[in-house]
Amino acid sequence: MAVGKIIIAGNWKMHKTQAEALEFLTVLKSNVEETDEAREIVLCVPFTALSILSKSLHGGKVRLGAQNVHWEDQGAYTGEISGPMLTELGVDYVVIGHSERRQYFGETDETANLRVITAQRHGLTPILCVGETKQQRDAGEAESVIINQLQKGLVDVDQSKLVIAYEPIWAIGTGDTCDAEEANRIIKVIREQLSNQKVTIQYGGSVKPNNIDEIMKQSDIDGALVGGASLDPVNFARIVNYQ
Ligand code: PEP
Predict the structure, then answer these.
(1) Along the chain (243 residues), what's the average pLDDT of each consecutive run of 10 residues?
(2) Handedness of CA 230, 69, 87, 191 (dihedral sign)
(3) 228 CA to centre of ligand 1 in angstroms
(4) Any domain includes 30
(5) Contact (CB, 8 A) for 200 and 163
(6) Has residue 242 been placed in a domain?
(7) Is 99 helix (H, G, I), strand (E, B) or coil?
(8) How many angstroms separate the CA atoms of 80 and 1, rounded?
């Protein structure tokens, strides 16, 4: 079941050379030939793999995503990437405000908001990540933390071209998945904050072939943002082809 469009996205983080990316794609493609067209498949890859994947994806059912976009179109911003640079390569999606960007690279709700607005200005669909730490969850603050992230991250944002990923930080890369019913409960809380009820809201955090069926059974979960398990094409295809 789902409320919004179903989108299963892989987040490769800082993994795979161009050669490895092509090898992955060959196996993935052969495993998603029968996948229901209603399921959007997205690969959010390092900048260096975008160009080569873009050429190989052209016309296929897999879409391309980036992992960051700067709010200026050009300028003295060493190490950043701009909207026009991404759209030129046929990128459709961009992950914004991932907890690793927040934790290691100083991303804030305010900068995430600027990036979301800029992504939309260039026709990219932002995947805005929100989620609480273990400490915040234990203190009973999960809902308030997420609502605050949304209020700040969605200022002046067009909700007709937006994806939100609920990613509890304690579940990312830990193998410690959030219980599917609890993820669904929080995703309902997120939906209550939105003016457009059809926004795709994904769950992310140790999604694997063995838990995706339960996750996608939930009423309000519209897809998944998958880190570790998206690095193996057979595993990722199994996730995309959830029952
Ligand atoms: C992520 O990187 O967004 C993520 C959810 O990672 P993992 O699936 O490895 O927990």
Answers:
(1) 93 98 96 94 98 88 96 97 97 97 97 98 98 96 98 98 97 89 98 97 96 97 98 98 96
(2) positive
(3) 6
(4) yes
(5) yes
(6) no
(7) helix
(8) 38
Task: Look up 167 and say whether it is catalytic.
Answer: yes
Taking the CA of residue 170 as centre, how many other CA atoms within 13 Å lie in the half-sphere pointing to its CB? Answer: 12
- What 3-state DSSP class applies to 14? coil
**Count of domains for the chain:** 1
Which contacts (CB < 8 Å, 24+ apart) does range 71-78 have? 71/111, 71/114, 71/115, 71/117, 71/118, 72/118
What's the CA gap between 223 and 1, in Å, rounded?
Answer: 10
Q: pTM (2 decimals)?
A: 0.97
- What is the three-state SS of 125-167? EEEEEECCCHHHHHCCCHHHHHHHHHHHHCCCCCCCCCEEEEC
Q: What CATH code is carried by the domain that includes residue 184?
A: 3.20.20.70
Residue of minimum CA distance from atom 4 in ligand 1: 227
* Residue of 99, 167, 178, 240 to test ligand 1 pocket, by largest number of atoms within 8 Å of CB: 167
72 has catalytic annotation: no
